[in-house]
## 1
Amino acid sequence: MLKLHVGECEHCWRKYRYSLWHAGFGENNYAYCDTCGMLAICSHARFFPATQPPTSAHFQAIEQEWEHLLAPCACGGAFRSNAAPRCVFCLHELSADYAAGHIEQNSRLSSKKWRWQRNWKDAYCIALEDPAHPGTLRQVSNPFARPWENQKKKPFLRWPQILSLSR
Ligand SMILES: [Zn+2]
Ligand SMILES: [Zn+2]
């Protein structure tokens, strides 16, 4: 079940709803869109189909070298290793230090001592609720530019050539 908390943008002071996830739950890495702040969750088994990823790269923002493996965001932006989530109303980057205030307060219901990481690249990532579609998070899963399985097959580009020859 989706658990939504309320946060506040430090630029426009509007309240947004978000879900905080630990990337380790599904053995994932993640990245935010550099234009709209959409969260992309990527299974790291898909980044490294044959080998184990280096342990240092587990459960955090993607490495910069992996950015080219991801398709562009639906908004036209790019998923980047160092991008930050953005306010869904004013599209300004959210400050991790400011967000830590409500993230820690909202999560302290379970543990009083818990301190959030205070950055947008370690184990916890957030997805904001789309105000146009309540209950829906601004998040995509495995937006790979070319799924790894397809890279070993013949490129799809050949099909248009064959079709045009047969005309
Ligand atoms: Zn805002
Ligand atoms: Zn985007």
## 2
Amino acid sequence: MIRTLPAFAGHRLDRADPIRADAARLAELARADARLLLLEGLIPRLDHEQHLQWGRLGEAEGEVVFLGLLDGEPLFAAVPDKGDPDPAYTRRETFTALRVLQPDELALYGGARSLLDWHARHRFCPQCGGPTAMAKGGWERDCGQCGAQQFPRTDPVTIMLIEHEKRVLLGRNARFPGRSYSALAGFVEPGETIEEAVAREVFEEAGVRVRDVSYIASQPWPFPSQLMIACHGHADHDALTIDTTELEDAQWFTRNEVEEAFANPDEARFVPPFPLAVAHHMLRWWLEREP
Ligand SMILES: [Zn+2]
């Protein structure tokens, strides 16, 4: 297991599930002066001390979700008109905020963001096309026409460090900044276990057969709503056959090269993943293991 806490993990909220289903209790908590997370669309607003900014529920327009209780106090957030169509972490304002927020606030923001984005994108029923309405304080949407229930989704993604004779396999996507390499990753497909998804992705992208896959850690990733499942595995061989439609390059790196990448990225063989990414924590975990 990794010892460091990945970004977007470690929220302090009591999700207060019984309150979500209790309309009377929820109405009681939803007072005009209750705390409302302030956002521009889905971008967090920060105060001058770099904390999340809060307004009052009375200022909210449209649908509002109940995030949970923080130290006994209810927190709410309003659904924006639109979800975020871009890979939003690439937006400078979002990215700047992510870099300065404290871990517990980052986790609170990430969870709220995924939930709000899901509501903004699920105003119509996937079964009959009828309009849906929020239920259970924002942790469900129901179709007014056919009654189908929808729940906020989380998409599992495997991300893996594959090892062969004390070297680790890292790849780069064409849209990565120059010289950046990271762990290979891919969505779990229907009908697959986590272990099978890891083996398939590595074989598809790098032509490497993988065995002995084990779980390391997980990270909620709110762009829009993935659960990154970090794994480790061993390769049977080091010959690579790279699928260039997926990866621009993949290479094996030694322990010394990974250490050097963290210590001196400008001169190392590659630039490691940034601290917000679980791959950063995975590589540090790998360095700390017994070789
Ligand atoms: Zn419907």
## 3
Amino acid sequence: MTGVDRDPNIVDAGHGIHVVDTGYMRPRLAASHIVIDGDRAAIVDTGAAPAAPHILAALGTLGIARGEVEYLLLTHVHLDHAGGAGQLMAALPNARAVLHPRGAPHLVDPTKLIAGSIQVYGEQKFRELYGEILPLPADRVLTVQDKERIRLGRRTFEFLDTPGHARHHYCAVDLDHRVIFSGDTFGVSYREFDTAAGPFVFPTTTPVQFDPQALHASIDRLLTYRPERIALTHYGPVGDIERLAADLHECIDEFVRIARRHAADPQRPARIAADMYRFLDERLDQHGFAGDDARRHELLDSDVDLNTQGLDVWLRKV
Ligand SMILES: [Zn+2]
């Protein structure tokens, strides 16, 4: 695997799992995981459409022929996770896209998904970040129910219905290696925030299906599998799972408190964003993160903005 050593955008995480930077927004923000088992491969979350050439190049670097990719495991249909699936399906002749039954229709006909994303990001930023969203051929889409399993080479993945971040979200458990691919269900943990205390994590409450009770339950459910590592799309595999789960529970509760506190305020989004930033900023201090204000803003602002939008939408429903 000398090619891998030379490519800083591919990290070998062991057990045939490779972390590929999709190049979304900034380095090490969004990962795609390429799982290789014998002469079979699966791609867990593809990244947005502009990432498709990087993913195809990474397959080449890893020595995987295009016909050997059996599955695209798409944890949910948010475009930083699945936006590039159409391009990859066109390039990977034997691949099937595996989706939650609630998510699949939105990639077979992405009209609503595109409209919803333009609402969140605005037309110009949408085009920049996501490019063209190609529909998936319906006959190559496989939907999986809760606890359904598929095999890749010698390993077995079990799929768990994990609402909370989105209702159409599954997590994929690699039963043979005690790794769970969590999409956005186990929050985001940027490697830049790693300190002697380990990884730093917080939840993602992106519009429009955040559900705090469901998210608490989904996180607890992941723990029942006693994972050694959880591989997050944002960003890569983390250990120290019990502590991170506790952190996530605390953060979800605090985000909800912040949202409720400002529910009736005409300046609600700005107030929620300010409080959320302050809260995360303090937690970063406690975590021993040494980065200055500019660095913190650089790494937190886009999530604080998205989380605020998601809480704002949630408040309209409660
Ligand atoms: Zn998401």
